């Protein structure tokens, strides 16, 4: 047996005994393996390599970056089954519960993480498990806002939307009033990734649900939650969007089958003019559409609550079973440091893997000259993260299936379907022992 295979086998045996998750780490003897959920050879993947290179230069610890996008969680599961998880995973905050429930994550001692006291409290909240312990080091944050075709808005003579009624009127004008001036009715108001893959329909709807004071589940005690998709505020938000699909017809054709990859292109091609999305595509759209043609606007407060919008980000996860625990800790500390955060931000260029810095010592305005980032920063003040249920993934997926169905079927009763969803989510919370 080769030295590499022998090391993996011995580490896997120890991990199965000590952690119960069966992880042996996939690093070589002296190389820290880092997985990040980004497309290979993308600008973001290159930024991750730059970050890892700076860490190696500062620490002397060799690194290997693996960038994957499609089926990222599936491939992590495959590595776990082979007892060869990577040492570090940089992944969505919403994946914490799923990875923790499978025993993949090391607990992070906030008090012993150098620089941990410099991170925002809201970012730490997104690294907290259902048991109140920390299972990741906060790395990046983002809040959602509206990226709007400014040139179209000025063409139709409307002000930035202040209410949901204003937003609907802007979408109608973008659909009916030929904002691109080509003499054809070939534009839409909203571009929406409304498919069910990875829960995109509920992911998109969540910003308007939060902006209206609604939610999917609510805490009822330590580690305990109750489903609330039948709450009138949640129903109202989903109904508002069904009206855009079915009554006003202001959503881009085919949206109910689209993920974000397709929706980005729909927006870039001028097929729609209002995109509720995170800041990670701002630099891309500035380059592909033109800086003078787009603006960033906050999500209007809903008629029954708010303000609110989806909060997301990425944590640095220290994977259980690694034979390089000290190196894992050092990488996390570097990633959250001001230097690590600045590298990840990548200034105004495309490829940022730190959208909004979580380190309070980093000045966003000093790093990025584009003032549109400030709208995302201000929106983060009332951002809502996925709650620390043991496993958020099935809740998001179940919600996406129902939300997608009521948008695709104009005869569907939103209130009734959201009530059925509450029953289903209650059962899911019971199965997770979180009800």
UniProtKB/TrEMBL annotation:
<keyword id="KW-0732">Signal</keyword>
<dbReference type="Pfam" id="PF01547">
    <property type="entry name" value="SBP_bac_1"/>
</dbReference>
<comment type="similarity">
    <text>Belongs to the bacterial solute-binding protein 1 family.</text>
</comment>
<keyword id="KW-0813">Transport</keyword>
<feature type="signal peptide">
    <location>
        <begin position="1"/>
        <end position="20"/>
    </location>
</feature>
<protein>
    <submittedName>
        <fullName>Extracellular solute-binding protein</fullName>
    </submittedName>
</protein>
<dbReference type="InterPro" id="IPR006059">
    <property type="entry name" value="SBP"/>
</dbReference>
